[in-house]
Write a structure and sequence with these properties.
Oligomer: single chain
Helix content: 25-40%
Number of helices: 7
CATH superfamily: tt1808, chain A
CATH topology: tt1808, chain A
Low-confidence stretches: 8-16
CATH architecture: Alpha-Beta Complex
Order of helices and strands: HHEHEEHEEEEEHEEEHH
Distance between the termini: 56 Å
Largest sheet: 6 strands, mixed
Number of domains: 1
Mean pLDDT: 90
Structural class: alpha+beta
Amino acid sequence: MFASLLDLRVSESILAPLLRPQPDAQGFVPEQRVVLGGISWDSYLGLDQALGDDRPSPRLYYLEGELEIMTTSNEHERIKKWIADLLAIFFEKNEIEIMPRGQATMRVMAEAGAEPDESWCIGAEGEWPDLVLEIALSSGGLRKLAVYRRFDVPEVWLWQHDRLSIHALRDDGSAYEAVEKSRLLPALDPALLERCVAIRNWQEARRVFRAGLAG
């Protein structure tokens, strides 16, 4: 099955115009996402191996037989980089010990797999990250909160429509709930982060963020 997915030389010219996402209102191209159903765990692992380790793209997400294949875009990568850099400043200023996990693959046998945009262990290093960031400039794809609940990730940040939404795992682990501020990083002002991500000059974004932290 995946052999045909990986060898699209004949059909690429036909499918490419249909699969190419349209720029958003600001002219930025979003990600490309394809979701396939009825995929076994072994097939998911086989595709991941065939695509190779340490690849920048495509990214794979798996949940109970559904597989999302996603390629990123320039704007997707810019936002990811901005947020990670700004959080690094916040961690340093507040003397918060972290262990960056980046987009290291996460898997729960035969149930779920994910490659987050960014992830961090806060304080002590654990098997799974405490904080996961996902950038979603396009709609569709697997339900990321359902994916990360399988790993009991305490907090998931979703960047959508130029806004950051923060989702904290309930104490009983049953679901995520939207919260106004991070429970892991209560001193962080989400509005300041959003404002600085919107600044397209990297140096200026960092300056404004540092000034905001200084109060």
